[in-house]
Write a structure and sequence with these properties.
Two copies of one chain form a homodimer. The first copy, chain A, has 20 helices and no strands. Chain A is mostly helical. In chain A, helix 17 packs antiparallel against helix 18. At the A-B interface, helix 1, helix 2, helix 4, helix 9 and helix 11 of A face helix 1, helix 2, helix 4, helix 9 and helix 11 of B. Chains A, B: It comes from Ensete ventricosum.
């Protein structure tokens, strides 16, 4: 029986739900747009500037404009931005695939630097942006914002968008930068969870040693437990598939089990208020390292491409969605009377993002270089600039948090909140498009230097990598020991 | 940023949405159960009786009982049965994959018989059940049911559940039976849409030639337009992928494009009130016949298994879901005072289903045998019994329709409606489990006879198959002409 029939049933029952029809229409429009994005993205593949995310974002905004005009300014989006959609359906496949496809050797070699950037770096940028916002916005009359709001602003705008990173950085072209910036983005998530715990639970006005210790302990607990949960999920799937020889009867069961267990690990992490992103990321790493070697040949090909495809669709969906949502007339109504001020707020925030990131990339790179013996291992200045630059993009994560902090049920009541929402959108659009456009060339320019520093030789942190892998190895009956 | 963070944000904002937490819990439980079903289904693979759908159904019911006990009879399901979930998300992948993997030669060879069963057969069973219900229920006092309700009962219980068929019949073991019963199930959908149009628009009390002509015309239009839409979607995807050489840059784009365009064709059909099932089924056939040959090797492996996996997960999900929902305390409360009567209603309906199906399988098989020249082509009596038997199962489709007809916003107001809902659930559970259990052995018993009739030789309707395929061929630039 088709939905059409059901719709007719509704008509028959005299309770014709126009919402059903509307949702069918919007799904049609949205899927058609997705197809469009994929085709256009394919045609622009050779382009020196554009990448898929920017295409989707732009198409989204254009569609928003069209809808806005056709509905005569009534509405501009076909879906209301929902955090559930984002955190429950779109984010997991993207991060899982990133973990599944990440170059593990490169990742674990730079593990310490990644931790440094992800944990300490995020903190530095958080404090810089929060204090900057307090200092600059207090003078301007943009409605009432309390200390909690300012701290939230700090967290919102230090949230590196891992998804954008995946789009602009190419793992094969620049493995070092990729693993640094993306890894940072993943760890960044754990930090932010701790950060918000802190904002809620600790009195941040008089900070003392105990609070800082608690804070560090909290982060350690969160990081380790999330990682272990992810690793456990991966190992369990490997064990079941190997022990029960699932592939004997059908390939599909293997693939289904991998997908479901990865998703389960993410949702479990959310249930336990851990960092789901960290969990599913490490689950992806472990699955590609153990499970993947225990499945049938066809399952290997399938998983490799199926996960990539899912994540690909989720990414396009996400940017299209953000682009469409950006023009939501509701949000702009409140600030339409003072466009100049709204613009000033946005540019201040953009400046703070730039400064906040610079404030940790360069010092921490310097620190990490001190630990490196060989000069090939060091992060040269040009690379530091790229790291700083590539991490400037803010995306759906920032928007989701801004909505969460500054709106109730999707509508802005207070003037201050309205300003924050609109500026967040402005910053996201601007940073993604402009910074995104300029990252590709920037990287191509210094690719040569990159390649030099990629010469393979025993590195200081390589041992750590092997330790980590050995540690996990003991847990699983895996066929081979080579670090893949 | 993780959902955990968002949840904490909610806490912070003082609007802790327990619903969010609840949904996370239920998703965890549900995904865990899905994994369980897959593992158990794997362990029971060799079993002579059980199949995956029955496992899922039983596990679902058991979980329902547990939840019922833990919540002290307050609720028994973690999700409320939603038609959208079923028709928008679960059904399309299942039917698409069925079309994608179907043995086209076999299907088109039996095309006429399938049409006969799907169109005329469904009508016969519809009238048998409706009239039987009117005759038998009028005497019993089970609340008020009008003529519309009785006709709806006819439609609800003549809805062959294609999904169950896929589970019990094995295409490789019994290709003829599979193509007949499953094909019938697909065409059955178009018939039902027309049927409901008819119930709404035509005055069925005084039937005359014009009405019947209208009816036939209506069916023809619906069938042809749905088929053409599906074929067009498939050919378009083939054309785009071949012309733009999407595979040049990435395999993932090819796979993504195939998935999205198949889904788009389904949703378009729904939008135009056509039969989405027919559309997506033919879209699957065309894609496996043209598009599949234009994609890269890895895309072929990926699509073959990825689509099967999606459909596999959707099926398990569906049966688990139906099983869980079956115990919804709300529905049973109304009939709890007269269990005997409820049982009688259910058994009457079950009897009507048996009779209604027998009323068209045997006569129509006889008719179709008349057209067959070679005795190998004929449907022998034992096969007719199997066809009758294998199509007896009623599933989620019937439930969705019953809810739609007899409930408003998921709750039963009238006594008569309550009876119908509970009896539908009883019939679905009983038919799926009991008939399902007995189908596997039944088929194995007469497999030999089947194999004899599978000897390959030019058949009367084979020409039609080639015609159909040639017809579509002209539309597409496809690499080879062999009927795959």
């Amino acid at each position: 029986m088709a939905f059409g029939l059901v719709a007719q049933q509704f008509v028959r029952l005299g309770i014709l739900s126009t919402s059903d029809h509307a949702s069918v229409v919007s799904i049609n429009l949205f899927v058609a747009l997705l197809c469009g994005c994929i085709v256009i993205g394919h045609l622009l593949e050779e382009s020196r500037w554009i990448n898929e995310s920017i295409t989707a974002l732009v198409i989204g905004v254009c569609t928003g404009v069209v809808i806005l005009l056709t509905t005569k300014g009534k509405s501009s989006h076909i879906f209301v931005f929902s955090e559930d959609l984002f955190f429950i359906y779109l984010l997991p496949p993207i991060i899982f695939n990133a973990g599944f496809q990440v170059k593990k050797k490169q990742f674990f070699r730079n593990f310490m630097t990644i931790m440094l950037f992800g944990a300490i770096g995020t903190l530095i940028s958080f404090f810089t942006i929060s204090l900057g916002a307090i200092a600059l916005f207090r003078k301007m009359d943009i409605g009432t914002l309390d200390i909690g709001d300012f701290l939230a602003i700090g967290a919102i705008f230090s949230a590196t968008d891992s998804v954008c990173t995946l789009q602009v950085l190419n793992q094969d072209e620049t493995p070092l930068l990729y693993s640094l910036v993306f890894g940072e983005g993943v760890v960044n998530d754990a930090t932010s969870v701790v950060l918000f715990n802190a904002i809620q639970n600790f009195d941040l006005v008089h900070i003392d040693a105990i609070i800082i210790l608690k804070f560090v302990g909290n982060f350690g607990y969160l990081f380790i437990s999330s990682t272990l949960l992810g690793a456990f999920g991966g190992l369990l799937s490997a064990y079941i598939i190997k022990k029960l020889y699932i592939g004997r009867h059908s390939t599909d069961r293997e693939v289904a089990l991998m997908i479901l267990m990865a998703y389960l690990s993410y949702m479990l992490a959310e249930l336990l208020n851990l960092s789901g992103i960290l969990t599913v990321f490490f689950c992806g790493i472990v699955m590609s390292h153990y499970t993947w070697h225990n499945v049938t040949e066809s399952s290997r090909v399938t998983t490799k491409h199926a996960f990539a495809t899912l994540s690909f669709i989720a990414e396009i969906f996400l940017f299209l969605y953000v682009g469409m949502d950006a023009l939501d007339i509701e949000k702009w109504r409140f600030v339409s009377d003072s466009p100049g001020k709204s613009l000033r707020v946005s540019s201040i925030l953009l400046g703070l993002v730039l400064v906040g990131r610079a404030a940790f990339v360069f010092p921490l790179s310097f620190l990490s270089n001190l630990t490196k013996k060989s000069r090939y291992e060091r992060i040269i200045f040009k690379q530091q600039v790229t790291i700083w630059w590539a991490g400037l993009m803010r995306g759906a994560v920032s928007i989701a948090l801004a909505y969460n902090q500054f709106t109730r049920s999707g509508h802005t009541q207070l003037r201050g909140n309205a300003f924050m929402i609109t500026s967040t959108i402005t910053v996201v659009l601007f940073s993604t498009v402009v910074f995104g456009l300029m990252t590709k060339p920037l990287i191509r320019d210094q690719k040569k230097k990159e390649e030099n520093s990629q010469v393979d030789h025993p590195a200081s942190e390589c041992s750590l990598a092997n330790q980590l892998i050995r540690f996990t190895t003991t847990g699983a009956k895996r066929p081979q020991l080579a670090v893949s």
